[in-house]
Specification:
Layout lengths: L7 H9 L19 H38 L6 E9 L5 E12 L2 E6 L14 E5 L3 E7 L5 E3 L1 H10 L1
Antiparallel strand pairs: 1-2, 1-5, 2-3, 3-4, 5-6
Length: 162
């Protein structure tokens, strides 16, 4: 069984963050005067998270074509490929999720959500989704012995917690 551990703070931050390169078009909302400080803090958190994980995401994306080729040629027995991506609901809320790849053809990935979801209500764990490989933030190949390749963002976050 695969166990991916992130701190609650990271999950909370990830659930309210967005990347200009990966997001849907912003949808303005009307906020009361009392909500403006919270909205400003949320925007600051989004920018901070994106800045913190930008370098490991870039590293993961640079190696993604080789990972895709390796997947298409066939992984070793019992190896599994997981991709991290952001999914959005109709309101624009998003969550960073781990998915297990089932098919990867051209620029489209079909995968099963393996994360428990907190912020996005239109999706659920175990659901099959399809997304563009341009939306991939990270990748992980898990071997039968539990060792892994990739996981650039996860390893970086873990290093910050030490």
């Amino acid at each position: 069984m695969i166990k991916i551990v992130l701190t609650g703070a990271f999950i909370l931050i990830a659930s309210v963050c967005s990347s200009a390169q990966q997001c849907l078009v912003d949808k303005p909302i009307v906020a009361s005067q009392d909500e403006l400080p919270e909205a400003t803090n949320t925007l600051q958190i989004k920018k901070q998270l994106n800045a913190v994980i930008a370098a490991p995401i870039l590293k993961a994306r640079r190696s993604l074509p080789q990972t895709k080729q390796r997947y298409l040629m066939g992984l070793e027995s019992e190896e599994k490929l997981f991709l991290t991506a952001r999914i959005f609901d109709k309101s624009g809320v998003f969550e960073q999720v781990f998915t297990e790849v089932r098919d990867w053809s051209k620029d489209s990935v079909t995968a099963v959500i393996v994360s428990d979801l907190d912020a996005v209500r239109e999706y659920q764990k175990g659901q099959t989704i399809t997304f563009s490989d341009k939306n991939v933030l990270d990748w992980i190949i898990i071997r039968p012995d539990g060792t892994e390749e990739g996981n650039f963002v996860g390893k970086y976050i873990a290093s910050l917690q030490q």
